Amino acid sequence: MQPLNIHLVTLGQQKEPIDIQFLQAWKSKVFSVRHVQHIEIAPDTDGPNWSYTDRALRSTIRPTPSADVTVAIVSSPLEGNYYSRRLGEGVCALSLHEMAGITRRAHFKVENFLIRSIYGYAIYHHVFGHVPASAEASWSHHATRRCVFDMNGLKEDIVYSLHQPRLCEECLMRLRAAQIPPDFAQSVQRELLLLKKGALYRFLDWANAYPGRALAWGVVASVVINVCSNYIYDHASKLRNVLDEAVNSVTNNSSNERTRP
After folding, report:
1. With contact defined as beta carbons under 8 Å apart, do 111 and 161 qualify?
2. Across the chain, what does the average pLDDT equal?
3. pLDDT tens-digit readout, 178-196
4. pLDDT band per the 50, 70, 90 thresholds, residue 248
5. Rounded to whole angstroms, how far apart are CA atoms 148 and 167?
6. What are the domain boundaries of the chain?
7. Per-position DSSP letters for 112-171, written without gaps between them
8. What's the CATH number of domain 4-203, 3.40.50.300, 3.90.180.10, 3.10.530.10, 3.40.390.10?
9. Per-residue pLDDT at 254
């Protein structure tokens, strides 16, 4: 399976910092990511509520050479206030409007949102041979299943598919119906498990979900730390006494040597 070439284009001033290196370093058999262009001066928005219509983005973002999929990252709202639009000709748009705040408040990196979305585009490409425009085809389902194709009609629901997302059974059936080799779905599922919340926040989530266990582990940890610290202190004290005795012995011997006639 040859990885797809995903080219990133950033449009205008990014209100939220994006870790481009994290995106480019993401290890995947499904796709590879490369940031190829930054369009400093973005065109004026042409839709309601300062949003970009699909038409405006199509005229601004063109497919980049050698890319299977070109993904534009913008800070403004998109048509219909969606966070993702597929524009046709292998061009997609992802908006950080509201999404960056939602992900960060839930203690996720915004890069989790971007990588999760790119997996969706890659799956479309493998099934259709290209990424169809939003109006042409959609696998999105209203039910929230921690799947990369969750509709997320309420944008806040995106957080349920940012930590170890997956392909739900309905989407796996669609892959089988399209006669996509099983190893593709296996690779996607395996790699999606690597998309996680940070270790500290995973621990805090666990502690909030199981406060009794967290308290018990805290008590055990404090006892273990106390025992270990006492053990270290006792042995350090003994070592210091041995060193003091050795120094005193050397000092006394030196003094005796100087006073001897």
Report:
1. no
2. 88
3. 999 999 999 999 999 999 9
4. low
5. 6
6. 4-203, 210-259
7. HHHHHHHHHHHHHHHHHSS---TTT----BSS--SBTTB--SSGGGGGGGTSS-B--HHH
8. 3.40.390.10
9. 57
